[in-house]
Amino acid sequence: MTGKAYEPESSYYVSQCMAYDTKASCTFSYPVEYADPECWRLDLVSGEDTGSVCVSRQDYDAYRSGDRYPR
Predict the structure, then answer these.
(1) What is the pLDDT of residue 22?
(2) Best label site of 1, 29, 51, 69, fewest CB within 10 Å?
(3) What is the residue extent of each domain of the chain?
């Protein structure tokens, strides 16, 4: 594991088209809310591959930079 970070829950809006005109242009749209849940993130490296994983708060607290994940 190379690092870790806490990401609080967040939300964002995306415009969703409801109706199109004959030229395929949106004539009516409405906002749709999406939410990303909170994440206790561990950053990982394996050879040349990198990535991250969201874990429980307990696992987040138990791991330190340099630890192997999963144990």
Answers:
(1) 86
(2) 51
(3) 3-62
